[in-house]
Amino acid sequence: MSFHMLFSGIRNAFRKDELGLEIMHISLPTTLALAADPIASLIDTAFIGHIGPVELAAVGVSIAIFNQISKIAIIPLVSVTTSLVAEEDAVDKLQNQPSETEMLIHTSSVTEETKLEVEQIDPECSTSSRSVNRVAKLGHDKSYIPSASSAIVIGAILGVLQALSLIFTARPILNYMGVDYNSPMLKPAQQYLTLRSFGAPAVILSMAMQGVFRGIKDTKTPLYATIVGDVTNIILDPLLIFVLRLGVSGAAIAHIISQYLISLVLLWSLMKQVDLMPPSIQDFQFGKILKNGFLLLLKVTAVTFCVTLSASLAARQGSITMAAFQICLQIWMATSLLADGLAVSAQAILASAFAQRDYHKVITSASRVLQLGLILGLVLSFLLFSLLPFASKLFTNDVAVLHLIGIGIPYVAATQPLNSLAFVFDGVNYGASDFIYSAYSMILVALVSIFSLYMLSSSYGFSGIWIALSIYMSLRTFAGFWRIGTRSGPWHFLKENYALLQ
């Protein structure tokens, strides 16, 4: 069934109808925002590089530690927040539609009827029903979305916890990462990591708010906020690093200021659209966010372990193999940024459609984003096959490394359609609030992939690692097809609505 959904009407994948425009308006700003940070980081790295090679290496280790720890909190929080906010926003709009047309005549009766209708759709939405009544009584146009307030509170708490943990454990973590006590990198690395940790609350808080904006299908505001923050960072870097002679501390301070600026811009914009003050503590949605967030934490851990293991196995084969693997891996992963935009649009649109029980839109939206994901993957595959043999020389001049990159190119390029579909399927599953399946299927995929990595790397070396990673992405994509194809979980409605597939 899911194959039928993927290829049915694929000629209309770029059709500029209402759905096509909605996907574009969500995915394009998301992709640009995701691309802005790596570009700003490259410029940031260039400034730090002018301080000295030791400082550059030290900051590189510190950034890797900070980003890896942040990812553990950010990915589950943002993903869960996007889905829950999209559902509650859809319920809010469903309630307000009749009340606007009949407010002067049947205000109270319409509210009660709509509340019953929403509670039949999702019994857990009773909190949202009470909240919308509260909004009507206050007489303003702001929505009250319980998960928005809850995500912001959780994000702030996680940010403070991350900051405290990194501040007090910076040196032991750096030692564990290979920066010894006698290393000249230790002092600048610890200095940068400790200062950068003060920005952790702003980083996680801003990402939580980005999840809220994605849920209400506004991805332009996070893009503008990101641009403002990144430009500020780029302006402050030379001033603090060279003019005030603060060195790596100046780079960290510039980044902290930019992150808090992003948070303030997002918070100010969000407060104009959403009422963030809950009527009582009972209106918070901490339980749903933490429960589903823990499930996605399991998934993130499984994904991270597979990629980290592949890098570790490459490192065991020598520095040349490791250098070639890192170049191929960075290219392989960088292309996922383009698919992430489609994944976010799939998540936001499907979550709203499921909340409204608009199953026709569920199917058409899932079909369209998967088709676009497949086309994107095919285009990327063609470009990488064509350009990477020549572009690889931009990364290194070492003949041995280039030889191994040439071996890796077919795998990097050929798996692009699988990669794109796998990432888009993540968005589809999150939009369906299918977090349990996402987590447990990923754990199963990881177990098979780990076995493949060990077996194939020992037998076929560098090629074996990439064969195993190809199996890994194939299984992730298959898991997405399997869920829809078996019409299980949130897709059980397809058993009674076969006409939707036609």
In short:
With 502 residues, this protein is mainly α. It has 17 helices and no strands. 46% of the residues are buried.
Structural write-up:
- The protein has 502 residues and is mainly alpha-helical.
- 83% of the residues lie in helices and 0% in strands.
- The protein folds into two domains: 1-28 and 288-502, no CATH class; 50-284, no CATH class.
- The chain has helices at 2-7, 18-49, 53-121, 126-138, 146-176, 186-197, 200-215, 220-243, 248-273, 286-316, 319-334, 336-355, 359-391, 399-414, 416-431, 435-485, 493-496.
- Helix 3 packs antiparallel against helix 10, helix 3 (53-121) packs parallel to helix 12 (336-355) and helix 14 packs across helix 16 (435-485).
- It starts with a helix and ends in a 6-residue tail after the last helix.
- InterPro entries: DinF-like, MATE_fam.
- It is a multi-pass membrane protein.
Layout of secondary structure:
Elements: H1 2-7, H2 18-49, H3 53-121, H4 126-138, H5 146-176, H6 186-197, H7 200-215, H8 220-243, H9 248-273, H10 286-316, H11 319-334, H12 336-355, H13 359-391, H14 399-414, H15 416-431, H16 435-485, H17 493-496
Helix pairs in contact: 2-8, 2-12, 3-4, 3-5, 3-6, 3-7, 3-10, 3-12, 5-6, 5-7, 6-9, 7-9, 8-9, 10-11, 10-16, 11-14, 12-13, 12-15, 13-14, 13-15, 14-16, 15-16
Protein name: Protein DETOXIFICATION
Family: Belongs to the multi antimicrobial extrusion (MATE) (TC 2.A.66.1) family.
Membrane topology: Multi-pass membrane protein
